[in-house]
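check these tokens.
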Amino acid sequence: MIAVCSVAATAWLAARTTSSAIQQEQGQLLSSDTDIYDTLVGYAAVHPNWNGVTPTLRRLAELTGRRITLTTQSRRTLATSSTAATALPTRASAVVDPLRTDPALLPSAGANRIDPRAVGPYRLTATERETLSGRAKKLLACLGGTGSGAALVLGPSGRPSVKLTNSALDGTARDRGCGLAGLDFPMPTEREPLARLITMVNSCLRLQHLEPVKFGIDFVIVYGGPPAQTCLDTARRDQLTPYVAPAALLFVATPAGSTRAPAFHFSSANTARVAGVAGLVLLVTVAVTVVVGTRLVRPLRALADAARRPVAEHQRVPVTTNDEIGYLAAAFNDLSERRERLEGQRKAMVSDVAHELRTPLSTIRSWLEAVQDGIATSDQALVDSLLEEALLLQHIVDDLQDLAEADAGQLRIHPEPLRVRELLDQVATVHHGRAGTAGVALTTRTEGDPELCGDPVRLRQVVGNLVSNALRHTPPGGSVTLRARRVGDLVTIEVADTGTGIPAEDLPRVFDRFWRAEKSRSRRTGGSGLGLAIVRRLTEAHGGTVTVASTVGTGTVFTVSLPV
């Protein structure tokens, strides 16, 4: 994302900066072409021909780096800035005509397109200029000087005028007696050509059957409309033609003769701008990359440091983000928590195994030492007692082996079709003797004759462990009932007793290894604490589930659900 953003920003800023630089260069090029056109039109406005324009062309060519050529309408060369013989471009850059200027290149000419510098016979003498200048200065002083907003402007013919920049003076100067109209009267040099111009204009209007008009030296017709203005423009061109140079074609090209603009060469300022923009984007990109990279690496380093610590510390890392690294940190913390819990269970299991094995081994050892020392005699009762303790040890070892095989995934199941009623009857037959001794009634009840596919040996072990557990916790006079029925695609086997029951807070732990409800670890009931853990693992190996429901003082029901 940083790379994409930096590339996009660099491209956009570089394009904007380069475009601005090109526009600036193009503006300078267009400005130079406009200066060439304006200079040549000004030359034509004050000269009756193009003789002597060559030095002007060379000066302009030196300033702009262009090749400038003037030709007649028939493309006969009038003057050129270069002595080298090169072919002219196919199209002219402009037509240099002070009486018909290009509005785009010379907007100051106004709507009539006549260059103001073309004054012809209206150019004043030095004496007339001095006279009008004196009047203008008196008028300016009457108006309050330059501080009043009035300014003195000298026209191309030498005629001065007062420009009123303050609208508050407009229209009130005459009333103040300053004589603003005194500058509008034609001088002797201007009277004769102005009279001839008025005659030419009115002759044009008579041909159109229009009323004659009058105007002053400012060549402004108050009335008469567009026809009068057209006649005035035409008459002025006819009157000025002898005094200006004839129209000429202007060719502006590269020194090689091409009309295309010369190749752009950025100035030092523009080159510095482009380089500065690229450097700024690079600096911002590096800064953002460092910040983001540091933010990304910090939690990864915390994870690595936590992983290197000893396992016994069970290190946790803070979860500060909701991205993939945050998920990884949360997973690491969960792994550490589960590892800590499993470590606690392992320690508890080792302690429980040692406790379970210590009691029968201590009994066997103490009796054997008593016989060896002659304190006790070896009779049948002692042998039976020692055999019972050895069988208890064997039972614990077998249970541990079954759980180890289940944990390692090596618990083998040999499924085959079997009838659930027969399975329950076999288990009940095995435990009838013990139930009778304990004074507990053991019965079976089956709805129909459900069948399933399972390992008969392992399933007898499951039900037998549940029955053994129920008999141990049922007082004399109570009952243990085996029930079975089919519910949809499942066969449920229930072992219900009327024993002491299990508190609700202990129900989630009944299937844990070596867990007993007796907090003092009393072996009064004779269980190893592994039977229910084996029940759960064997049931899961068959693809089933085992649940428990109990009420203290009423009894407990274990339910095994197995797929058909």
